[in-house]
Prior knowledge:
The termini are far apart. The chain is α/β, with parallel strands linked by helices. Helix 6 runs antiparallel to helix 8 and helix 10 crosses helix 18. The protein is built from 24 helices and 10 strands.
Amino acid sequence: MSLTSDQMELREADIRKHYPAATALLNGFEHAPRIAKAVEVSAERSPGVSTKRRFRSTTPGLVTRRTVRADGIHLVERIEASDDGDTLVSPPQATTQQAIRRAIAIALAVAEAYAEQTPLADLKRANLAGDLPIARKTEFSELLTAEALITSHVLGNALAYLMSSHLGETTVDIGEIEEVLTDNGQLALHGALWELDQTLAKHAPDDAHMIAATSAYAEQLLEKATLRAQSAGHLAPFQNAAWHIEADDLTIRGFEPASKAKSTTLTMTFKKPNEVVGNHIAKYQAMKLAKMVMAYDFDRRLNPFAELGGFIFTFMGDGKPGTGKTTLIQMMAGLINNYCQNAGYPFRYQNLSTDNIDSYQGKSGQNAKAFINTILDPSVIGFGTIDDIDQLAGKRGDRQSSAGQLEITAVLMESFAGANTVVRGNCTFGMFSNYPENVDDALRQRAGARFLVDGPQTREDYIDILHLLMGRNHDIPLGEHEAYAAQEIKKAVAASFESHSRPHEEALLQVYDRVEGQIGQMDTIAKMGAYLKAIQQADEQFTGRAIKNITDAVKVRAMDFELPDEWMENPDLFLFRDYDTKKAMIEDLRQPITVEMVIQEINRYADSEFRYADKSDEVAIENAVREMGRMEEAKRRYLEGNG
């Protein structure tokens, strides 16, 4: 693997020189916990056997396991105790020991490199000699805190990465870790390894659970260190650089979690564009988006479309049942999968489903966050879908929404447009629903684009879909009809966009006609702004986020071109070019923004919001009427019974 411009090679010799120290930590060290509490200690394992104090697991059934000696932390013994039935070290145990030693050595090497890049190394030497100036004590303390955070994060990051390929189907919920110390790098290591030992004592009755618990602990450690780092100083030298470790194909890039760039194995039935009948705008935008995401530059970790504007990070597809939402997903996933296979890029597709809702408090949110992180991974091309989002994500204030559904809503809102959301352009998320009016308003507005999945509409559409679904096992003639001619995408899309020159929803059409009657043709920004204000007065949910989504959609229209198929078929023409060249090639294809584009996108977006609001209000009214009818009937029966 070639290094990118911002990467430095972390030499193997610089890592291996820390092996003796790492091995010593595995064999044993002393640590008195400062924040966390040790597992419960019992005076003896069983009456009359021993009077030596030993750590005793609180997990039922594990009280007879061999545990660590009370005179220190011995991770090697703890790991080997995961299978008391065998006196030899098992392969999973050996793998875990090797991974921990390797992660410790990498953490020490990166911390050492950081110290040499900053004044920390000189201040350490001065402090050791007793010559540390009083004026620099605060700086020294802050640098030690930074070193501790870096050490903890790299330890967790490297360990999670090294263990990832050994994980099986066993999962472990280890709870929240606590012993994350920030005094200095050495103490941070001691605290982390002490708590790892405690974690294994409680959650590793066998090798499978040991692997899962070690990985779960590593994931939590890197997340905790990342959160602490948000308020710490002197971290720029670490955050702005990347260290690549050739032997492990591991890149430590600031506080980003490292992961192996693996594709997911897709078993879905892919659909070709001509097999999607109707849904012209949705199909067109999905086809464009499939090619847009392929423009992502793995070296720069940025997509030119994300920089120039016009990249769709989140979109919502809504329509009646049976109009083709699943088919649209199968088409888009199939296109991206084929493009990635041709270019040799890793591709991940994942769907967040109702299986991810868990009755255990906090678990639903964890499942949603894992889904988001899997797709966001900057080392892959990702496509994430949330089908039937109205069932999955709860609506705040709705008494029928479960705690798990509300957890998922919170995670999706923070991930799609939160303070820490970074759109690199390597992935996109699609939310689909038959009943978008039941989706939380704030979450729905985080969908930057709207795909109206309305299915077949015209006579030609219905002939095409019948012809398609009938297959070939018949002799019925087609008749006077040119198969799929109505699905010619450019002609159909042009007509669809043109239809939005005036609103479709009756309530919005009244606003449009009133504003146009007052100020005339909307051909300036001031007049279009007046139209937007009038929409807001009619629908208070039409906020600044709606304006951003509209302008993003306008920028997408400015990119109203489809990257040539040859660029996808022959990666050397575009995909394998450097970032600046790809950006210039895209800019050459960009079109000017027109008044018609802006009006059409305002109407498209506002139509969808009015459609959702009308449905939502109507459903609420119907439910209220039904409830009143029930109460009236209950009252009548009650009075009859007491009469």
